[in-house]
Amino acid sequence: VHQACLEAASYRYKFGHDVPVDVIAKRMANVNQVYTQKAQMRPLAVTMLFIGYDDEKGPLLYKVEPSGFFAGYRAIAVGKKENDTNNRLNTLINERLKSKEADAQDSAAGDDSDSVDKDLYQNIKDVVTMLDKVYDSKLKETDIEIAYVSKTEPSVRILSESEISDYIERIHDDEE
């Protein structure tokens, strides 16, 4: 984290604006790669997620692995049951993209901020529901962290434990 902060500060000093998410992700991947190749250096054993909003590219999410590999994603999970969660996230995203394409063909309406808020709520609810199904035990707000960016909120927003708890309670109320 300290190295990423130094890189971001250096970029801002050199170019006069904040570092784009893809640039900092690539730079940190390069640093990780160097650490895997030098015998006198211990490899960094941390997976990093970089999230941000670009006016041209929209929301960006990059995962940087300790080996130096990095890639962009629409949504990604890291940690316990990561593979199963990511498979379900991909399925969820593909379903959403298909439904949005169908909706776009049905109507040519513009982005309404109210519909954007509803989409965000539904996306978070769907992700929490999916995570609740992935975990063998009952999901608690301390088990997960959720962050997002959007056009209306371009700075990173991390949901608090109480907000996650509200989503979990709503899901359990809907099931009953």
Describe the structure using short key phrases:
5 helices, two-stranded antiparallel sheet, three-stranded antiparallel β-sheet, 53% helix
Structural overview:
- It is a single chain.
- The protein is mainly α and 176 residues long.
- The protein contains 5 helices and 5 strands; from the N terminus they run ααβββααββα.
- The strands form 2 sheets. It has a 3-stranded antiparallel β-sheet with strand order 1-2-3, with helices on one face. A two-stranded antiparallel ribbon has the order 4-5.
- A hairpin with a 3-residue loop joins strand 1 and strand 2.
- Helix 3 runs antiparallel to helix 4 and helix 4 crosses helix 5.
- The protein is globular.
- The mean pLDDT is 85.
Summarize the structure.
With 176 residues, this protein is mostly helical. It has helices at residues 2-15, 21-37, 82-106, 113-134, 161-175, and strands spanning 48-54, 58-64, 70-72, 147-148, 157-158.
Overall structural class, as computed from helix and strand content, comes to: mainly alpha
Taken from the alpha-carbon principal axes, the silhouette is: globular
Strand content: 5-15%
Q: Average pLDDT across residues?
A: 85
Strand order of the largest sheet: 1-2-3
Low-confidence stretches are none
The separation of the N and C termini measures 43 Å
Number of strands: 5
Portion of residues within helices: 40-55%
Q: What's the Cα radius of gyration?
A: 18 Å
Give the helices and strands as they follow along the chain: HHEEEHHEEH
Largest sheet: 3 strands, antiparallel
Number of H- or I-type helical stretches: 5
Protein name: Proteasome subunit YC7alpha/Y8 (Protease yscE subunit 7)
EC number: 3.4.25.1
Keywords: Hydrolase, Proteasome
Organism: Spiromyces aspiralis
